[in-house]
């Protein structure tokens, strides 16, 4: 076939390169992704109202109406208790996540880069990973007591294992040819790690961090349910004991919102890290 195929000329606007139809749609719908993501929560809120106030399918004790839960939140906010519960829970999660994720990054990097350390420590770490979260609670209460330290340590345990697993597995599977290419350019040790290996595993590292953050919120509730006098987990347990289903649902909604907020912030950091490193 002798005929040469030529691409059709692309007309570019005066202010820059041509945009695809998808890009043009995005410009026309600022915040479109946020609006689409809000569809399901709004539908769930509508169904919630329908089965409570709308049809009376559930009694107020079983499932209070959305406005009842909102009123309970306003009451706790005006008394100052709501801010206290949210603040202490968020503080515990951030401290525990920082400690657990930091240790997971360090130990995962060590075992991922060193075959000797991996053979020596990985079986032990794997055995501890199989221990259920609640099994640590009695031991922590015995050793540390019911103060803040025991709660933060439990949350750190929850955040540690997903981060460790992701970092360790990613570093063990970095393309050997990529590493050799880095060494050919004179990169060794810490410089090789920062220039070649870490950028190669950034997506996996942040996947582990986001899983670790989710685990931190799960372990927070476990810690506050068993030994706490404040926090959203404590509010859950106190509301159950007092028959305050409205406050119980409020605590669940707040846990979901705070968990989503922290995950979103970590996602922003992830996107910036991917632009810089990957």
Automatic annotation (TrEMBL):
InterPro entries in UniProt: MetI-like, MetI-like_sf
The UniProt record lists the keyword Nucleotide-binding: no
CDD domains: TM_PBP2
Keyword Membrane: yes
Record's compositionally biased regions (Polar residues): 1-13
Region annotated Disordered, chain positions: 1-26
Residue ranges annotated for the ABC transmembrane type-1 domain, each copy included: 82-267
Transmembrane segments: 29-51, 93-114, 126-146, 152-171, 192-211, 217-236, 248-269
Keywords: Cell membrane, Membrane, Transmembrane, Transmembrane helix, Transport
Gene3D superfamilies: MetI-like
Record localization: Cell membrane
Membrane topology: Multi-pass membrane protein
Family recorded in the similarity comment: Belongs to the binding-protein-dependent transport system permease family.
Protein name: Sulfonate transport system permease protein
Organism: Nesterenkonia halotolerans
């Amino acid at each position: 076939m002798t005929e040469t195929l030529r691409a059709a000329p692309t007309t570019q606007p005066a202010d820059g390169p041509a945009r695809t139809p998808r890009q043009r749609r995005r410009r026309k719908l600022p915040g479109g992704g946020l609006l689409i993501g809000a569809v399901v929560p709004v539908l769930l809120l509508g169904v919630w109202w329908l089965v409570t106030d709308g049809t009376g399918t559930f009694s107020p004790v079983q499932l209070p109406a959305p406005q009842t839960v909102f009123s309970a939140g306003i009451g706790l906010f005006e008394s100052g208790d709501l801010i206290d519960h949210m603040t202490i829970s968020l503080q515990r999660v951030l401290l525990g996540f920082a400690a657990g994720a930091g240790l997971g990054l360090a130990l995962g990097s060590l075992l991922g880069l060193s075959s000797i350390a991996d053979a020596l420590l990985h079986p032990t770490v794997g055995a501890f990973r199989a221990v259920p979260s609640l099994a640590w609670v009695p031991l922590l209460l015995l050793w540390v007591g019911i103060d803040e330290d025991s709660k933060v340590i439990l949350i750190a345990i929850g955040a540690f294992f997903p981060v460790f697993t992701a970092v360790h597995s990613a570093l063990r599977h970095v393309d050997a040819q990529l590493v050799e290419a880095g060494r050919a350019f004179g990169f060794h040790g810490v410089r090789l790690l920062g220039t070649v290996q870490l950028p190669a595993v950034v997506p996996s590292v942040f996947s582990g961090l986001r899983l670790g953050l989710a685990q931190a919120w799960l372990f927070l509730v476990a810690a506050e349910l068993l030994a706490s006098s404040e926090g959203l987990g404590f509010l859950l347990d106190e509301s159950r004991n007092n028959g305050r289903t409205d406050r119980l649902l409020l605590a669940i909604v707040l846990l979901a919102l705070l968990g989503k907020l922290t995950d979103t912030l970590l996602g922003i950091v992830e996107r910036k890290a991917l632009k810089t490193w990957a």
